[in-house]
Task: structure prediction
Amino acid sequence: MTTTTRDKLANGLVIGTLCLGAVAFAAFGVQWLLRPEAMAHDLGILLTNGDATSDARAVYGGMELGFGAFLTYSAWSPGRRSQGLAAAMLMLFGLGLARLTGILLAPGGVSGATRQLLATDLGGAALCTVVFLVSRRQTPPLEALAREASKAQD
Result:
């Protein structure tokens, strides 16, 4: 079994998408961890006490850093790449759906920042979905190619 140029490109696309997601989630996580008041202010959120600031750091900082680390972990091993793409797709779709619900229910409308985040959520979910589907259509699947390559190195 040989790896075709198409398979190599698909594998590169999968790794690139996972790495892009890892960097994006980690970047947001670091910003929320280090500057929660500034990040919240751009969205009209007031963090009024230590509890609020601590929770913002945990949810928006820690969770995003953890998810960025998971995507890095997924990109590192061919056997975990599909799961990483699926997790990113579902996470971004969930964020986008919840954000869209919030926009539709917002009594006075929302700012451009919220609409930009919605576009980022849904755009990222769409990218992950397309890359996931492309990776699953490869013949043989990328996971099988990875196992073959791993055996060849042993």
